[in-house]
Design brief:
- There is one protein chain.
- The protein is of the alpha+beta class.
- Among the domains are: 183 residues, no CATH class; 143 residues, Heat Shock Protein 90 (2-Layer Sandwich).
- Helices cover 56% and strands 16% of the residues.
- The protein has 14 helices and twelve strands.
- The longest helix is centred in the middle third of the chain and has 49 residues.
- The radius of gyration is 46 Å and the shape is rod-shaped.
- Bound molecules: adenosine-5'-diphosphate (ADP) and magnesium ion.
- Magnesium ion (MG) binds next to helix 12.
């Protein structure tokens, strides 16, 4: 077995799709957030306070603002703990030596009053998170969180992406000195989460459509092929393609079709062989009847032999037509039925037919002709007069044959379809026939994916209806 066929293509494809979706989602979101940050970084630099400040916060941190808060709080608490442990002059040097990619840390003047400072609950919570991590709060006498406007930054670098304000966390020590933590991306830009979600959704939808299409096309082909098999056992096998499970199913269906067709072929061949082999003894019997008997008996025996011969002829004709595997082709049903009616009229039958044109179906014409002529023949034989109507309804074609005869008792209708069964009728005591007409007609109809039904009409007579899929 080759590698591709042993691999489960569905799961491989699925896994690849998910990996691709995540990868594309991440890169899209990262790209977008980097673009956003670029603008805010420029803004801060323009303000002159960002010389040792880099806003290269990673996309991952932006995607998890909660984790960002915890990490920030831990980092700030650690810096504060160190700052507390130092004397004021060392503290100042320590702070100027600090660089952090996500926070701007400044040693602020004692009167740290920033214009437009406004309280912000997010930054306030960050302050509380920092406070609980400090062992000695008494040396820090104030920890205030809020936001300051970035109007001046915006004026210098007009950018649609720069946020209105940046977050600031201030710590005031007992000796009056201040540390200011400026957090340009805190809390994480509101849009970034949504941005990530939107890009992820778009990518996932795209990948789903791609995957769905990859699955739907072979399934649709399979459904179409299976439908055709239902109508025609001689249809070519369904092409084996698609995911592994589907390919296995298609193979099973194709094998089933093959077995069914062989079974039907064998049955027809057996029937043909028996009928054929009966001919020789029958011929000998005819000869012996001729030689051995005389008078009335001989005539009766001859009649029986004729019936036997007719049965064999009909069986053989059908078996031969069926075994011929006549190819299907597009046939104008109106023309086909017109021909049949003409033939039956020529033989003395009374047939009325409203000619219709334009209804064409794929069929095996010789067989279909036999099925329809058996119905019309019955109507003119047992019902004296046949009326034939062809109509199309949705995706089906109906050939309706009405007559004015005695009809068939409801309980005898299925019997009439049985092979070599004839329904005794005082009105038709000696009509020629062997009881195979309806059997053969129904077999042909079903082989075409259709059927034949018999109903007694309310105003007398029988209605035989052949229904075929278009
Ligand atoms: N249109 C009809 N009206 C009344 N009886 C019918 C009609 N068609 C068929 N039958 C009955 O059904 C039986 C079986 O019909 P069929 O299979 O065509 O065989 P056959 O015509 O050779 O007898 C007929 O013998 C007849 O008794
Ligand atoms: Mg008949």
């Amino acid at each position: 077995m080759t590698l591709p066929s042993t691999l489960n293509r569905i799961s491989v494809r699925f896994a690849a799709a998910i990996a691709l979706a995540i990868f594309l989602g991440l890169t899209t979101a990262a790209g977008l957030s980097l673009a956003l940050k670029g603008t805010s970084e420029n803004g801060l630099r323009a303000n002159g306070s960002g010389s040792r400040f880099m806003t290269s916060e990673s996309a991952i941190v932006m995607m998890y603002p909660r984790q960002n808060t915890m990490m920030l709080a831990g980092k700030i608490a650690m810096i504060l703990r160190t700052a507390i442990s130092l004397n004021p002059s060392d503290r100042e040097r320590f702070i100027s030596a600090l660089t952090d990619p996500a926070i701007l840390i400044e040693h602020a003047p004692s009167d740290d009053s920033v214009a437009g400072f406004e309280a912000n609950s997010h930054v306030d919570w960050l302050g509380r998170l920092v406070a609980v991590q400090l062992d000695d709060l008494s040396t820090v006498i104030g920890l205030h969180g809020g936001r300051i406007p970035t109007d001046n930054l915006r004026r210098e670098r007009p950018s649609t992406h720069l946020r209105e304000t940046v977050a600031v966390l201030r710590a005031r020590f007992s000796d009056g000195s201040n540390i200011r933590f400026v957090l340009p991306e805190y809390p994480a830009a509101e849009g970034s989460g949504k941005l990530w979600l939107i890009s992820m959704t778009i990518v996932v939808i795209g990948v789903s459509i791609w995957m769905g299409h990859g699955l739907a096309v072979p399934i649709r082909k399979f459904a179409h092929g299976a439908e055709r098999l239902g109508l025609d056992l001689t249809a070519p096998p369904i092409p084996v393609e698609g995911p592994t499970e589907l390919r296995r199913t298609i193979r099973v269906v194709n094998q089933m079709q093959d077995r069914l067709r062989r079974f039907l072929d064998d049955r027809t061949q057996m029937l043909a062989a028996i009928s054929h082999d009966l001919r020789a003894p029958l011929a000998r019997l005819s000869l012996r009847v001729e030689l051995a008997t005389s008078g009335e008996h001989r005539q009766k025996m001859h009649r029986d032999l004729e019936v036997l011969n007719a049965m064999i002829d009909t069986t053989l004709t059908f078996a031969r037509d069926d075994a011929r595997q006549e190819p299907r082709r597009l046939v104008d049903l109106g023309v086909l039925i017109g021909d049949i009616c003409e033939d039956i009229s020529d033989l003395g039958g009374d047939v009325a037919y409203d000619d219709v044109r334009g209804i064409s179906i794929h069929c095996r014409p010789t067989l279909l002709r036999r099925a329809v002529s058996n119905l019309i023949d019955n109507a003119s034989k047992y019902g004296d007069r046949a009326r034939v109507v062809v109509r199309m309804d949705n995706d089906k074609v109906y050939v309706v044959v009405d007559d004015d005869g005695p009809g068939i008792l409801q309980g005898d209708i299925e019997i009439a379809f049985a092979p070599f069964r004839r329904i005794a009728s005082e009105r038709a005591p000696s009509k020629p026939g062997v009881g195979l007409g309806l059997t053969i007609a129904r077999t042909i109809a079903r082989e075409h994916g259709g059927d034949i039904t018999l109903t007694n009409r309310r105003d007398g007579g029988l209605r035989a209806q052949l229904e075929l899929p278009v």
